[in-house]
Amino acid sequence: MLDFAIFAVTFVIILVGAVLYLYPSSRRASGIPGLNPTDEKDGNLQDIINRGSLHEFLVSLHEEFGSVASFWFGGRPVVSLGSVSQLRQHINPNHTTDSFETMLKSLLGYQSGMGGGASESVMRKKVYESASNNTLKNNFPLVLKLVEELVRKWRSFPDDQHTPLCAHLLGLAMKTVTQLALGERFGDDAEVIAFRKNHDAIWSEIGKGYLDGSLEKSSSRKAHYEKALSEMEAALLSVAKERKAQRKQTVFVDALLQSSFTERQVMEDCMVFTLAGCVITANLCIWALHFLSNSEEVQDKLYRELEEVLGSDPVSFDKIPELRYCQQVLNETVRTAKLTPVAARLQEVEGKVDQHVIPKETLVIYALGVVLQDDETWSSPYRFDPDRFEDESARKTFCLLGFSGNQTCPELRFAYTVATVLLSTLVRQLKLQRLKGQIAEVRSELVSTPKDETWITVSRRGS
Questions:
Q1: Based on the number of CB atoms within 10 Å of its own CB, is 250 exposed (0-12), middle (13-18) or buried (19 or more)?
Q2: For the purposes of burial, counting CB atoms within 10 Å of the CB of 282, is it exposed (0-12), middle (13-18) or buried (19 or more)?
Q3: CA-to-CA distance for 172 and 332, rounded, in angstroms?
Q4: Comparing 129 with 336, which gets the higher pLDDT?
């Protein structure tokens, strides 16, 4: 009888251990509070789909489990950080890599710069950032020219004509990013159109198809995505070869070619910069004009600063730092629109946040969209109020989250410059008015964008 009891207890222990090992739905990620998988294979994927986006899922996750919470991507545990305090603990020891770039490269299946040591990561980051900054400085007149072309077009519209922000500003972003990143070849509209076709096909699947698993379930969509990615990579490799032969050093790709990067690394970095740069630039400009059209007071205050700092002169690269209220407007645009609501890093070594241990190779999500509208961090978080950034603590928090200062990703820094040129040119010539009854709903994917076309009307100042 005793032998049977020992056997029975041993069998139960072995059975429970096997269940815990084979079926992740019975385990929690690293002991951190959170969701068990709802499906053995997909983890919490269906929960994310049911919420409509990863951002909305993270909002509900942190509401239920607090600022450090866990869930599952397939059979992989994920830890999400949803407060300034926890992000500060995790970001500071991991500042050598950019979390948005890391996430995007992972989704594209790129490895360059992902597996090297800390010194290689720092070197690559410096080259990438220097290439972006020098490109903006060297090509600033081109940015101004492209913006002025758009503003002249808008000035020609009748006062009551509806102006589609998404269509016009995505076009501006595509022209600006491609010419500054890849050179004068993209001064040809046909090249930009071909680039946009593949860009849109790739980005739409990165933003959603990978996340909800629908890409893998549709052979036709996957083939379309892979064809677009292949064509884009071929085009970027072709550009790199052309530029290397010309030995010019004026645009983004030229700076990469002067480094020790391989041809493949140059192509991958150009892919990340152009993909993210176009979307972030377009949506920063779209949301900024949308919010300005809804606030005559903010628009007039910005106009007064532009008149005081610039007078009748066009904005110059050196004058941008003096446009402090314009910077506040763009900061508040990023915050209110949750422009990049999610970033991620792979935990390269075991880490700790508060009392929680994060094991090596855990995927760590930065729930930036949750933090950007946390009422413990921001007063009246859903109100568009650029004046909040007069407070030094608000600026420090924003810098910590990677939206300003040295931690800003090069694509966002690029977008800030283009948006500043747009606002400084547009607001001094035209007044923006919202369309009554229009509500711009947010689609929060990797970069927040309006769910539908967003419209405004413009009128000449003084009319």
A1: middle
A2: buried
A3: 22
A4: 336
The separation between CA 99 and the C-alpha centre of its own chain, rounded to angstroms, equals 10
Q: What is the DSSP string of 368-410?
A: HHHHHT-TTTSSSTTS--GGGGGSHHHHHHHHHTTSSGGGS-H
The structure tokens listed for 83 are 């407060």
Q: How many CB atoms lie within 10 A of CB 389?
A: 21
Length of the chain: 463
Residue-wise DSSP of 200-241: HHHHHIIIIIHHHSHHHH-HHHHHHHHHHHHHHHHHHHHHHH
| CA gap 32, 68 in Å, rounded | 7
The three-point CA angle 22-28-33 to 5° equals 175
How is 82-129 classified by DSSP, letter by letter?
-SHHHHHHHHGGGTTS-HHHHHHHHHHT--TTTSS-HHHHHHHHHHHH
Per residue in 382-402, pLDDT (tens digit) is 999 999 999 999 999 999 898
Residue at token pair 């283009």? 418
Q: Strand, coil or helix: what is 258?
A: coil
Encoded tokens for 414:
């690029």
Question: pLDDT at position 195, please?
Answer: 96
Count CB-CB contacts under 10 A for residue 305. 18
Residue 34 tokens read as: 């959170």
The one-letter code for the residue type at 458 is V
Of the candidates 455, 434, 181, the one whose C-alpha atom is nearest the C-alpha of residue 298 is 434
Q: Distances in Å between the alpha carbon of 415 and those of 172, 229, 345, 404, 418?
A: 11, 23, 23, 12, 5
pLDDT score at 360: 86
As a whole number of angstroms, the distance between CA 379 and CA 382 comes to 9
Cα 133 to Cα 252, 268, 348, distances in angstroms: 9, 19, 29
Other C-beta atoms lying within 10 Å of the C-beta of residue 179: 22
Rounded to whole angstroms, the Cα distance separating 224 from 78 reads 30
